[in-house]
Write the structure tokens for this entry.
Amino acid sequence: MIVTEPIDFTGKFNPRRPKPPGHWMDMGVDERVEAVVGAGLPKFRARQISTNWFARSSNDPSSWTDLPREVRDQVAEKWFPTLLTNLRDLIADEGMTVKTGWRAFDGALIESVLMRYPGRTTICISSEAGCGMACPFCATGQGGLQRNLTTAEIIWQVHDAARRLGAGELPGGPGRINNVVFMGMGEPMANYRAVVNAIRTIHAPVPDGLGISARGITVSTVGMVPRMEQLATEGLPVTLAVSLHAPDDELRDEIVPLNKHFNVDAVLDAAWNHARVTRRRVSIEYILIKDINDQSWRADLLAKRLKSRGDFGWFHVNLIPLNPTPGSRWTASRREDEKAFVAHLECAGVPVTVRDTRGSDIDGACGQLAANLDSAEAEFV
Ligand code: SAH
């Protein structure tokens, strides 16, 4: 039994720790207007501020010349503290993959990964500093949970990437973000309120938010069933990805410890429900680990369990070759076992793809985010 702590579904901060500073991005549209009025400014300033921050992607209030100078100073101090400091960028795939290490106000370290493909750009973001889910194959899981991120800290990662891309600062020329995936550090459903609020602002049309289509947003979960059910009621047609990794409880109990609380059946039912309500296909994530979960009979069992929930059209299986974490006894499946696994799923009619492992040479691939930025580097920047 690995999960011994009660699971925190509340997303609350430990009251003994300092709370991250509040930010414009923590607020919804109405709250921003209220805050502006409360600060003695006319209502229309709220829209001006949002236009500068979200539409112009400018992170420097002193350059917002449509506001009087003293208002700029007031606004900067009140609502635009620096939440995350860029410690370093690691670049791979000829500049098309950039992993950024961030330090929060309290020293918490997180990472995000930007991946440019021909015609689209995806950012993989963190929802927590660390992760409490303790999956033994995942680098983040080994370090435990430090704390939840705030709404603004989550959006910050997307906003900053959008800003840098827009300004042409990153290799590959100017661009914009098309997809946001909650597949960085943390379990997004364990920080539910902040994550849903962040999605609302990431999705809200410019200038109220970043204007990224809900269809381009993917939330990945180990299977927190009550939160998956709740997410289906939010009216947000985001894509849900479920990290299944095993079709049987015996193995899943071991490799995804939360399975002891919510088993394979419960997780697949909640996934199916999400697909039905949102009309969005659910992605079933399945890491292939050599001789652990890659047997053909498990592919057959996976197909069977998906099929028992109706039409395969609602599920898509995404196979991920394991990225071994340092010191792990597990490695990626043999090529022939991977092929056989794919063939068994295809033969049963299950839509399946094998994911490319972008950024593995900079520890930026799935499950490798561990924020092992040492202190020397942290001080250097
Ligand atoms: N906690 C959420 C969000 C993190 S997503 C979740 O687990 O879904 C990160 C994705 O990468 C998940 O599908 C996760 O299972 C996968 N992953 C973790 N460690 C990995 C590793 N070492 N190799 C390949 N994929 C890994």
In short: DSSP finds twelve helices and twelve strands in the chain.
